[in-house]
Write a structure and sequence with these properties.
This protein has about 325 residues and is of the alpha/beta class. It is about 50% helix and about 15% strand.
């Protein structure tokens, strides 16, 4: 019986729901081991304000945190590793980043096929690029990527996700005379994610992952938005500058850096609500004129294994 290791970190439990849906077709036919990555001390949920921003510099600079010892034996052989993670500040979450930089990661991922599974708001490409690099450094081989994202418009999902992260309130609500949707990945999306498990199962049975990403993309596992991708790239660059400046005032949870973190908070929301809408309009115009440029971005970040198609009307 072939063996699968599922590594994951979740705060709210949503990512574990996604994992369970994808893995449903594989349970029973394969030996599946689940390993939850646990930071020490645990990150809070809800975040309750400043702790949320305290995680910003370490997320961006990929500074490891303390982690509980793994329950799985790193020397054990697995035929497939699935790494499920969240995105924090356009970077892989600190617990996942910490694992990827550990000696255990090299033992677990070295020489193994790896599939990444993401549960995100909407911007994930810069984080995935870093995870891809870390997997390669550990000697692993990325063979597939699955992304489940919040379908709400960018500015709407900022409000719903922040409410969820800060207050623990996920459900739909009304405010300012407007109706806001439930935060996160919809339950219907999670339920349908089992189709990706069927595709993975087929590759495992055949003993080949060569065409796996093609099939996953065809089934809707990865959707790349060129406009958000360009906004994300510029955000990642600015985040690096801010993180470096904040770290000069001290490490994680140091009160001395709170003032700079507050300035960053104001900067972040100003960019999201005042700058990003105009940037989105500019990029839409660019891709309306040069549709091929958008198609190249889609193809590249879908892992370049498909015949990419994209139209500006879809944004």
């Amino acid at each position: 019986m072939k063996k699968i290791l599922v590594l994951y970190y979740t705060q709210t439990g949503q990512l574990k729901q996604i994992v369970d849906s994808v893995m449903a077709p594989l349970v029973g036919g394969f030996q599946v081991t689940y390993e939850e990555l646990k930071p020490v001390p645990p990150f809070p949920f809800p975040w309750n304000g400043m702790p949320f921003f305290q995680a910003f510099p370490e997320s961006v600079k990929e500074i490891p945190c303390g982690m509980e010892s793994l329950q799985v034996d790193p020397e054990e052989h697995f035929d497939l590793v699935i790494l499920a993670y969240q995105v924090w500040y356009l970077s892989p979450s600190i617990p996942v980043s910490s694992f990827l930089q550990s000696p255990e990661a090299r033992k677990i991922l070295g020489g193994r096929p790896v599939i990444t599974l993401l549960g995100v708001r909407n911007m994930w490409i810069m984080a995935q690029e870093r995870v891809k690099a870390r997997i390669a450094e550990a000697g692993g081989r990325l063979v597939g990527n699955i992304v489940l994202a919040d379908p709400a418009p960018n500015l709407t999902s900022v409000i719903t996700i922040v409410r969820w992260m800060m207050k623990g309130e996920k459900g739909a609500f009304r405010k300012f005379g407007l109706r806001f949707p439930e935060a996160g990945v919809p339950a219907a999306f999670i339920e349908k994610a089992s189709v990706y498990g069927d595709i993975i199962k087929d590759s495992l049975v055949k003993g080949s992952f060569d065409d796996l990403q093609n099939k996953l993309v065809s089934a809707g596992a990865v959707k790349v938005d060129p406009v958000l991708t360009n906004i994300e790239k510029r955000g990642k660059m600015m985040f690096g500058i801010w993180a470096k400046m904040i770290l000069k005032k001290g490490g994680y949870n140091d009160p001395k850096r709170e003032r700079r973190l507050k300035f960053f908070k104001y900067y972040l929301f100003a960019v999201i609500y005042l700058v990003s809408p105009f940037a989105a309009i500019i990029f839409r115009l660019i891709y309306f004129i040069n549709n091929q440029a958008a198609a190249k971005i889609v193809k590249k970040y879908s892992n370049g294994m498909e015949s990419a198609s994209w139209r500006v009307e879809s944004l």
